[in-house]
Amino acid sequence: MDFQTFLDFFAQYGYLFILVICYCEYLNLPGFPAGLIMPGIGVLAGQSDLNLMGALLLSVVSGTLASLTIYGICRYGGAPILHKLFGKSPGFQKFVKQCHEKIQHGGNRALFVCRLIPVLRTIVSIPAGLLKIPVRDYTIWSAAGIACWNTALIVFGYWGGGTIVGLFGAA
To answer: What single DSSP character describes residue 59?
Structure first.
């Protein structure tokens, strides 16, 4: 997805687009990089009638719901579903193992910290589900980490909107 396509979708669908695109991004689907999506939401919020706080809130709600989806699959389906969904990719297995170790060692605070580390932030739902972290704790700590990550990137896009649009050549 290129930047202009992203701008066109956002202009047409606004808040609904934020919900859908953030949900897909937190499901870790290919083609939905947070480094483009989140600042893009900030840029578009700054250049449209959309409210920045509304955009931030929707991004956090959507990210939390997507994270709960992966968490639930792993909590109730476990390792067999993981192998069917993701195969036996050595890189993926390495990241899952890192998250697993961090959560076992640091508990809920580690879950929060993992939400702030690129790549680990979307994969952390897998070991959290496998470890059966209580849903309430998982949701609170995940939402807090998601809020920090999304706020940083969206506000960056909001404040630097003109520069970002100029760099990508979008009108």
So the answer is: H
